[in-house]
Amino acid sequence: xxxxxxxxxxxxxxxxxxxxxxxxxxxxxxxxxxxxxxxxxxxxxxxxxxxxxxxxxxxxxxxxxxxxxxxxxxxxxxxxxxxxxxxxxxxxxxxxxxxxxxxxxxxxxxxxxxxxxxxxxxxxxxxxxxxxxxxxxxxxxxxxxxxxxxxxxxxxxxxxxxxxxxxxxxxxxxxxxxxxxxxxxxxxxxxxxxxxxxxxxxxxxxxxxxxxxxxxxxxxxxxxxxxxxxxxxxxxxxxxxxxxxxxxxxxxxxxxxxxxxxxxxxxxxxxxxxxxxxxxxxxxxxxxxxxxxxxxxxxxxxxxxxxxxxxxxxxxxxxxxxxxxxxxxxxxxxxxxxxxxxxxxxxxxxxxxxxxxxxxxxxxxxxxxxxxxxxxxxxxxxxxxxxxxxxxxxxxxxxxxxxxxxxxxxxxxxxxxxxxxxxxxxxxxxxxxxxxxxxxxxxxxxxxxxxxxxxxxxxxxxxxxxxxxxxxxxxxx
Length: 477
Fold this sequence. Notes:
The protein is an alpha/beta fold. 23% of the residues lie in helices and 33% in strands. Helix 2 packs antiparallel against helix 8.
């Protein structure tokens, strides 16, 4: 457990320009509209007006704004008092429409996605991708398979206009406007995100994909994602995130709500590679009905400070939830990650597997919650968290909170902390690998339980990102 002074270990002003990540870049494209910096009720009203929203959404936004202003910063984890909301831009627009053809996307934005190292395999399937640049989506198109099967796959702003009753039925029902400080902020200023509805009995063979890009310093991205997988249906959704490096902080505070119907299955895969000036504060939660399955596959390589705890509410009998995650805490990084499993139905089961790697003075904490409620008869939960520490200046804590309130259920917990085995390192180097290559081989083996859950093209991209992550801080090992 960290001591009460653990906040002092994270210095949000640390760093030097010479170690700036050479693989990051920013664009010079100018927005067509940018709301002045700062947060106020007038700003919230202006965002809603610019989007032409119905009255109920404005009311939601104002409730969220009021709750955000009243709430203190979270009392756990890293200290967030350094955030200055008066300097942030909460809404920026780069195009007046969401393009349906890749050729209609503004050239500089299109070039950005080509530069980001998105795998060639992924670019071939852009018909299944939604891309968001700053506050709003700039491109969207559907897989033919999804169109034929009646799947709704839209940016969230468009979904509010085209399916208002379906939208209102689910919006804010898993994560309400007063859930936590940054969910309240998202409710107030949300823009963009993904809306997916998979009809009953529909199965998609290929994943739907989305990519989020922050380009400017002192900006905020607040997408709102809403996914409904109806009874007997299935979905795999994949998202990626990047931003360039600046000397001033940007904020990403997203909300993801997922509904998994009876006998339905949803997998949500994230590879987050924000730069080391992005503060990433995300609320993700799914509610799962009878015999449903929710899987979070959560990769956290980037960001300056990251607080994210994917959650499953297993309200249905025999429902299942899992979270497999990695966190890499490197130079100037504080990863505070974990998972939450709330078990309500009978014979529910939950699994959490977390792998953390810390180096170059970074920090990576696992913060977990398993709560088995009185009526969750026969519930079973397994939690394991392993950390690999690559030097003497890095740190990691495991902070589980496991509660079982009936005598017919059980929770298993295991945790390990280790350093690289010198004998393994010597063996690999004796076979011709450099020290850096040997360390990377050991690290990739350590996170293999996560990597094997990714689609092939994303597994390749993960390996590429790990290469860059080890190079940009100088060296490892």
